[in-house]
Q: What sequence folds into this?
């Protein structure tokens, strides 16, 4: 087991109280596994990703533990986490386009970053990784503004994985890209795993179609909790949670016109996490909701590696 | 690059022409007749003599020519470095009067601008995101920057000069001394310089510190700072990058502030009777000395334009993005 998350709770401090963005999430990841983390905006997927590497000033670790390669990650302790960052856990952020210091040449910035982490820059290694993602070697002598969006994205991917982290968190990295660039990014991620640059990976996205291509396992979250987690093809072909089903049904299909089949969405919106309702959080929007849904549904392993948190599953 | 500087030079050239024209116009359309006041000062009572003198002076200053001819003459003389002859200290050439005052103004301005800029930026950057320091630097900075230069000058003159008696409150050096390169004179010069310098320095300091503090906070919350922090980079590195990026708007700020600083220096000089350009302007106005006034303004205009041009060049050096823009890439 590479990563083990137990009942992780992370709250956001706001003026109106604590928003329970992550409210008791447990899951595990095997060595070399790519986990696709899906769900609509505000379901807690980015919060989960951030919690595993660096919480921002408004986030508070409210409970639960995280274990990486048998060692406990001090997720709530900003200082103690420093030793793990970059070396063990690394991040490709949502904002790759602006992730590099605009007034430093890229090569110099990478050198300074590595030196500050007590590592000397291996130029040969760096160049071979640039080759892997198809970047010309002279990007190191350029400023970030001189790169296109796709190039910046790949450059950040190379920087983030330079120290061969055990866990890589890729947060919505394909959201702003066109389809062919998305494919290139997905391929590069798989290449990183094959070359052993990263052991396992959490791929956060709201694009179920793309994630089913590259992820081994998909985990769907809803309102700060796990809804369903299953191997990719099982989850896409035989989803058991009503939310997953609706999510997959709401994907548009190419070639199907609006007149022939209306695009169905999921009516309603997720509950406020400031004071979440008791019981199943999807109850208000769920077409199958019944009496028992007033109780919290625990995640149950209905088949090997297939977890569902629903009474009806 | 050449196109960029070509455009900049064109703008500075245009500004210069407009400034010279306005500069030429203001004293001429000011009420009062300088020749009449010179005649009054000479206390000649015979009408014939007065008339002769009027004709002589009018001819000497070129007032007998049509106004457009005077304007062209002004430009012609300007390119020969001839600002005319002072009326106040007749018959010294204006250029000599100004050159005598310029070292005092520059000696006051340059250290005040550069030191306040440097220390203010360091102070602001240091205070940003450090609660205790921020809570002191910010309010003190606001108080300092809200103070008018001359008001602080008066307070300093009264407090440290008149009451405490530590510093002289008037003049560029003691009247008992003759300007020379002796130690005694230099120490005396420095002693007289301290209060005017301090009043300029302190007011400017507050503004820079506040600006820098705000910029650093903005930069520390930017994406590249967050990314570095997520990769475990130490605060030292992140702050260094933030400072480098936050200084860019501050450089623009310096260009914008120069005019204000010059004006502040002029008023401060008057408060301390410091023998620089500010005192000269006051004298020129009091004596309706067109040429001196024009010459002094000219000097200030040239100085501010030159300083702005230097800042433009510095900006291109420190921000790679302006260079990329010049090459035609987005």
A:
């Amino acid at each position: 087991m590479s990563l083990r998350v137990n009942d992780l709770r992370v709250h956001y401090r706001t003026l109106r109280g604590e928003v329970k963005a992550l409210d008791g999430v447990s899951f595990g990841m095997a060595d070399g596994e790519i986990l696709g983390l899906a769900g609509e905006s505000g379901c807690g997927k980015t919060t989960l990703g951030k919690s595993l590497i660096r919480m921002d000033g408004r986030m508070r670790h409210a409970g639960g533990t995280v274990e990486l390669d048998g060692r406990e990650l001090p997720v709530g302790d900003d200082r103690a986490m420093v030793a793990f960052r970059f070396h063990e856990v690394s991040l490709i952020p949502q904002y790759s386009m602006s992730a590099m210091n605009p007034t430093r040449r890229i090569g110099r910035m990478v050198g300074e970053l590595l030196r500050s982490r007590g590592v000397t820059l291996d130029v040969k290694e760096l160049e071979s990784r640039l080759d892997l993602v198809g970047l010309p070697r002279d990007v190191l002598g350029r400023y970030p503004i001189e790169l296109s969006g796709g190039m910046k994205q790949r450059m950040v991917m190379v920087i983030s994985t330079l120290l061969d982290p055990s866990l890589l968190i890729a947060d919505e990295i394909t959201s702003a890209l066109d389809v062919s660039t998305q494919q290139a990014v997905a391929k590069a991620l798989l290449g990183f795993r094959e070359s052993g640059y990263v052991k396992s990976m959490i791929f956060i996205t709201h694009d179920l179609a793309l994630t089913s291509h590259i992820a081994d396992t998909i985990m769907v979250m809803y309102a700060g909790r796990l809804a369903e987690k299953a191997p990719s093809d099982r989850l896409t072909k035989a989803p058991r949670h009503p939310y997953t089903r609706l999510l997959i049904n709401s994907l548009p299909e190419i070639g199907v016109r609006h007149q022939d089949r209306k695009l169905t969405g999921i009516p309603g919106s997720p509950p406020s996490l400031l004071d979440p309702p008791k019981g199943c959080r999807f109850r208000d929007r769920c077409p199958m909701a019944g009496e028992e849904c007033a109780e919290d549904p625990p995640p149950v392993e209905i088949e090997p590696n297939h977890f569902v948190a629903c009474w009806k599953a | 690059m050449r196109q960029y500087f070509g455009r900049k030079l064109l703008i500075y050239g245009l500004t210069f022409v407009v400034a010279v024209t306005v500069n030429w116009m203001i004293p001429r359309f000011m009420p009062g007749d300088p020749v009449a006041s010179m005649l009054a000062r000479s206390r000649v009572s015979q009408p014939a003599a007065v008339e002769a003198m009027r004709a002589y002076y009018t001819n000497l200053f070129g007032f007998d020519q049509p106004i457009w001819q005077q304007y062209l003459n002004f430009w012609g003389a300007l390119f020969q470095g001839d600002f005319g002859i002072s009326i106040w200290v007749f018959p010294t050439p204006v250029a000599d009067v100004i050159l005598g005052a310029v070292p005092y103004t520059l000696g006051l301005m340059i250290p005040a601008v550069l030191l306040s800029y440097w220390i203010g930026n360091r102070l602001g950057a240091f205070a940003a995101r450090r609660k205790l320091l921020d809570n002191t630097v910010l309010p003190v900075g606001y108080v300092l920057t809200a103070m008018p230069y001359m008001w602080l000058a008066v307070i300093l003159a009264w407090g440290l000069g008149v009451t405490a008696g530590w510093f002289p409150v008037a003049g560029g050096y003691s009247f008992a001394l003759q300007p020379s390169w002796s130690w005694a004179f230099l120490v005396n010069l420095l002693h007289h310089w301290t209060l005017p310098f301090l009043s300029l320095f302190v007011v400017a300091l507050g503004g820079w510190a506040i600006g820098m503090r705000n910029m650093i906070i903005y930069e520390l919350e930017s994406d590249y700072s967050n990314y570095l922090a997520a990769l475990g980079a130490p605060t030292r590195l992140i702050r260094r990058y933030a400072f480098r990026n936050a200084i860019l708007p501050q450089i623009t700020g310096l260009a914008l502030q120069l005019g204000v600083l010059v004006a502040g220096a002029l008023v401060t000089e008057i408060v301390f009777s410091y023998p620089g350009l500010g005192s000269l302007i006051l004298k020129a106005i009091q004596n309706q000395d067109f040429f001196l006034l024009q010459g002094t303004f000219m000097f200030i205009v040239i100085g501010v334009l030159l300083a702005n041009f230097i800042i433009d060049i510095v900006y291109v050096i420190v921000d790679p993005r302006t260079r990329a823009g010049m090459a035609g890439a987005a």
Q: What stands out?
A: Chain B has a mean pLDDT of 84.
